[in-house]
Design brief:
Blueprint: E1 2-4, H1 16-19, E2 24-26, E3 36-39, E4 47-57, E5 61-70, E6 79-85, E7 91-108, E8 111-117, E9 122-128, E10 135-144, E11 148-151, E12 157-163, E13 168-174, E14 180-187, H2 193-200, E15 210-216, E16 219-228, E17 231-238, E18 243-247, E19 255-263, E20 266-273, E21 276-284, E22 290-291, E23 299-300, E24 311-317, E25 320-328, E26 333-340, E27 346-353, E28 358-365, E29 371-379, E30 383-391
Length: 400
């Protein structure tokens, strides 16, 4: 059946009638908390929302981080906006902050907040009170221009930034108390400050910055998609952030868009080149060398938008592991390719249809083993608003 679920809040009401047709998706008869679609509207047509990340607050719902820009604003970068929902995606509170260009959410041992920057481009971790969104504390992270964050398996915060003075990508690792443990600068050897600024203020190309973890042969560390040596590359760093190897493509015009380790030196990845998107289900990666896979075509994803953003996530359901690749298509759908985790095997393709242009931003596996996706929906083709898509675990459960 068709279920129409849209939500506005307090001062943000208005224009709901415009949203009804845009939030129609095919859904099964499941519990409302397992599956829903919520669009968060704003009555000001001159305000645009750029969703960044979503996280689940255990037993309490979701926290959605967005950057917000107004057409009349004198500020170059978007400011920070949070939406706290209950488990059904219904708004409990919203909060706006003067912090600029939000890069990610952290949820570390009950400490919740976001990473963004001040007007001097300094990165900060800002802790909030989850009851109302008020600021509790600020922590200067001693790096500039934050682009992406991740909380690793040990509850350490990893932040990718850009140092415009040394023209370097900057990767830093922080303890649970936001004390810096180690950091490294990767020389870009070119002045990309203008491209980085346009990425951060949403006026130029949006680059696929990401951070993940790898382990192989008793070693472990991080892979980070960032600018390095004239190119946008996925660099491999050991746990102390010492550089090992990298995967490159062609300057900043082509890149990996996502990367997932299967097992050992075998990886699954997506990449874009010359407007096309490719999925490489299984390739062997030598993390100690510099290499590219431009000659490995893989599966051509003609249905995806040009140079599409791709979200990837390794999930576990009933002791079975899968890798999900999620993106948006030319026909206004959110599409997910579900693969087996340790073999190059496409098991299923899942699609959520919308009537308006949509662009994915972040994806997580929830505590109930379902999937939550935050995306940007173009209402009437022009009003940029966040939409939260929650799918049940049953959608991804595969049986022999």
């Amino acid at each position: 059946m068709i279920r129409k679920l849209c939500h506005n809040w307090g001062l943000f009401i208005g224009g709901l009638i415009l949203l009804v047709s845009a939030c129609e998706v095919n859904q099964k008869d499941v519990q409302p908390s397992d599956e829903f679609v919520k669009i968060y509207n704003h009555p000001d047509e001159g305000i645009s929302f750029y969703p960044v990340e979503v996280t689940e607050i255990e037993g309490s719902g979701f926290l959605i981080l967005s950057g917000v820009k107004a057409d009349t604003s004198d500020i170059e970068f978007p400011v920070t906006h949070l939406v706290k929902t209950n488990t059904l995606g219904e708004v409990e509170w919203t909060a706006d902050y003067p912090w600029l260009a939000p890069a990610g959410i952290f949820n570390i041992s009950g400490s919740v907040g976001f990473v963004a920057m001040d007007p001097q481009l300094n990165a900060y971790a800002v802790q909030i009170d989850m009851s109302d969104g008020s600021e509790q504390s600020q922590h200067h992270l001693e790096i500039d221009m934050p682009l992406k964050t991740m909380v690793d398996a040990n509850n350490n915060l990893v932040v990718l930034g850009y140092d415009y003075i040394s023209r370097s990508s900057w990767v830093a690792l922080f303890s649970t108390g936001f004390n810096i443990q180690s950091s490294t600068k990767l020389n870009v050897n070119a002045d990309l400050e203008n491209q980085v600024q346009k990425h951060m203020n949403k006026t130029g190309q949006q680059f696929p910055f990401y951070i993940g973890q790898w382990s192989e042969g008793g070693q472990s560390g991080y892979f980070v998609n960032c600018f390095y040596n004239y190119s946008l590359r996925s660099v491999f760093l050991e746990g102390g952030l010492t550089l090992k190897g990298n995967i490159y493509s062609f300057q900043t015009e082509a890149s990996l868009s996502s990367l997932q380790q299967r097992l050992g030196n075998k990886y699954a990845m997506t990449r874009y080149y010359a407007g096309n998107n490719f999925l490489l289900g299984e390739v062997e990666v030598d993390i100690n060398t510099s290499q590219n896979f431009n000659d490995v075509t893989g599966k051509v994803l003609n249905e995806l938008t040009q140079n599409a953003k791709v979200l990837s996530e390794r999930i576990s359901i009933d002791a079975s592991e899968y890798i999900l690749f999620t993106s948006q298509t030319n026909s206004n759908t959110v599409i997910t390719y579900q693969h087996a985790a340790e073999a190059d095997s496409l098991l299923a393709t899942h699609v959520s249809q919308f009537n308006e242009r949509i662009e994915v931003a972040d994806m997580i596996q929830t505590k109930d083993k379902g999937i939550a996706i935050i995306a940007q929906l173009y209402i009437l083709g022009k009003y940029k608003r966040p939409v939260l898509i929650k799918n049940p675990s049953s959608l991804y459960h595969q049986t022999d």
